[in-house]
Structures are given as structure tokens and as C-alpha cells.
Write a structure and sequence with these properties.
Structural class: alpha+beta
Distance between the termini: 35 Å
Strand order of the largest sheet: 2-9-4-7
Helix content: 40-55%
Radius of gyration: 22 Å
Length: 320
């Protein structure tokens, strides 16, 4: 029974990832449920959507605003349409070479082409990368042309969205009771997995096609870095250097887990003077900070500042 209990665990419990990635992971799962278009998934789709909206309502609003901006951008729209056309071509060759509903076809298009075509701005780049990976995996059979065209389309899409600062929506909103809400979502995901398996007892591994797990798997860390986030307490009216090493290519995920605002800056020495202009992290807010923003490699320290006169501050820091 010990092995059975290992499967009866919440699917993302203990996985440390940014709120933006977790939101995208859940939203992608909802899209896969919708694309499956099966009546037996109706209840869990509605339940998951309600929890997502409760947890990431502000994220959804941000995404809608982002998509509205993109809808006004002809270049982005044109590239997205071209990507959809390339996906149709990719599906056609997989049908021709492997036949529809074959194991290979179901691996590449478990829900048809719909998830690729209805992907939001923040999801499209991931779908492009996934399509490239699959075209590359089977290029010996389907040829190199499909991979090359997909790579070319993605390069133009990436350049266009980067130029407009729209490549990835940032989650900088505050989510009250985040841990409680995430646990509720995790319970729902476990229920969803059980439901999908229950309706696919002859092919239980199909459950994998409903999740983009690479979004939330822990990133490859340096061996000397801990898997758990580094916790730090900042006394009232003080500043302290975080005991965490970073280099020029790193990104730090900092979450304000306390009740007062914290401020931060990068410095070459742990006892460096506090600059006049500081970036703020509100209580219960999460932010990603690149080492380059902190001034690496010259600056080797992330210093947190608590300006509150009586209350101590708390934060968690994770090296992504």
C-alpha cells in the first residue's frame, strides 16, 4: 500500500515555481479539457475554471488586456495565422506518414490542432516550441522542412513580441491567501487526474496529454543550491544581505511572505549603503529579479530593506 499512497498525493505539492508559471500550467490544463470536448469532463472543467478565476482573477484580466493589445498588432496576428497554417501542414504529414489515431499521431496531437490554434499570447510560444520538438523528434520520417519552417516562424514571433514587450505577461499582482488557494487547486488537479484515468482505464497514460508539466518542473539548479527556498527575516528599520549566491545568468524568485513591504537592491558588498531609489515588494507579492538587474557580476548581494518601525519583514528566495 505504500506505493499506492505515493500516487494518492497532490500532483504539484512541494514544487516551487513562479505564480506566472503555475497560472499558465493550470490554464493550459483547462484548455486541454475544453479541447477534449468530452461530457464526462464538464464538471471538473467548470470546477477548475472557478478555482483558477478565484486565484488568478487579476492574472486573467492582465492576460485579456495583453491579448487586446496584441489584437491590434497586425504583425503578431499575421505570424500567429502563419503558425496555425504550419500546424495544419504538420498534422497532414503525421496523418499521411503514421495514420490518424496511431500512437505517434496521438502523441503529437492528442487533442487535435485546437490547443495550438486557440493558445493565448502567453501560451503560443510554448506551443511553438512543443511543435518544434515533435517535428525534430520525427524528422527522419517527415523530413527537415517542417522543423525549419516552424523554427523560422517562432523566431519572427519571438522577435516581434519581444520588441513590443509582450512576449510574456508578468504576474505582479497580490494574491491574498495564495497558499490556501493553491492547495485547493492542487486538490482539484488530483480529482481531475482521477477522473481522466477513470474514463480511460484502457489507456491511463493519456492523462499526461492534459498537462504541460515542463512548465512547473523544478529548473536545473547548481548542485550547491538548495531545493527549498531560502527564508529570511528582516528586522524593523534594518537591511540585510540574503545568504544566496547568484551569477550573471540567474533569476531569483522573491516572495514577500510577511505583513509589511520590503525593498531590495543589489550591491558589491553586504554592508553597502542603502541607495535613495529602491524597488518595492508588497506583502504577499512575488517578483522575479534577474541577476543582471541587481548589477551582476559586479554586485554579488541581494539586500532586503524593511522600513517599518515596529514590524519585522519576511521573505522567501528561490534561485530559478
Amino acid at each position: 500500500m505504500k506505493h499506492v499512497l505515493n500516487y494518492a498525493a497532490y500532483p504539484t505539492q512541494g514544487i516551487k515555481t513562479s505564480r506566472a508559471d503555475f497560472a499558465q500550467y493550470v490554464k493550459g490544463h483547462i484548455n486541454y479539457l475544453l479541447a477534449a470536448n468530452q461530457p464526462e469532463y464538464g464538471t471538473i472543467t467548470d470546477e477548475t475554471t472557478a478555482l483558477y478565476d478565484d486565484m488568478f482573477g487579476a492574472v486573467s484580466a492582465h492576460e485579456q488586456f495583453l491579448n487586446k493589445r496584441v489584437s491590434l498588432t497586425q504583425n503578431v496576428n499575421a505570424i500567429k495565422k502563419e503558425f496555425n497554417a504550419r500546424i495544419d501542414e504538420l498534422e497532414e504529414v503525421f496523418v499521411f506518414k503514421f495514420h490518424k489515431n496511431s500512437p505517434v499521431y496521438n502523441e503529437v496531437f492528442p487533442h487535435g490542432v485546437t490547443p495550438y490554434k486557440v493558445a493565448t499570447l502567453s501560451e503560443t510560444l510554448i506551443k511553438m516550441e512543443l511543435a518544434e520538438q515533435l517535428a525534430n523528434k520525427y524528422k527522419t520520417t517527415i523530413g527537415d522542412t517542417y522543423l525549419a519552417t516552424l523554427q523560422e516562424v517562432r523566431a519572427r514571433y519571438e522577435a516581434e513580441t519581444n520588441a513590443q514587450g509582450m512576449a510574456k505577461g508578468e504576474v505582479k499582482n497580490i494574491i491574498p491567501d495564495y497558499k490556501v488557494k493553491r492547495l485547493a487547486v492542487d486538490k482539484q488537479l488530483l480529482k481531475n487526474i482521477c477522473t481522466i484515468i477513470l474514463h480511460n482505464l484502457d489507456n491511463p497514460t493519456v492523462v499526461e496529454s492534459f498537462f504541460d508539466e515542463h512548465l512547473i518542473f523544478p529548473k536545473n539548479k547548481k548542485k550547491e543550491e538548495p531545493d527549498e527556498p531560502y527564508s529570511i527575516i528582516v528586522a524593523p528599520n534594518t537591511h540585510i544581505a540574503a545568504n544566496i549566491n547568484f551569477s550573471i545568468g540567474d533569476t531569483l524568485l522573491v516572495t514577500n511572505t510577511g505583513t509589511v513591504s520590503l525593498f531590495y537592491y543589489g550591491a558589491a558588498a553586504a554592508d553597502a549603503a542603502i541607495p535613495t531609489s529602491l524597488a518595492e515588494i508588497l506583502p504577499d507579492e512575488e517578483t522575479e529579479i534577474t541577476a543582471a538587474e541587481l548589477g551582476a557580476p559586479a554586485n554579488k548581494y541581494l539586500i532586503l530593506v524593511n522600513r517599518h518601525s515596529t514590524d519585522e519583514g519576511e521573505a522567501e528566495i528561490l534561485l530559478l
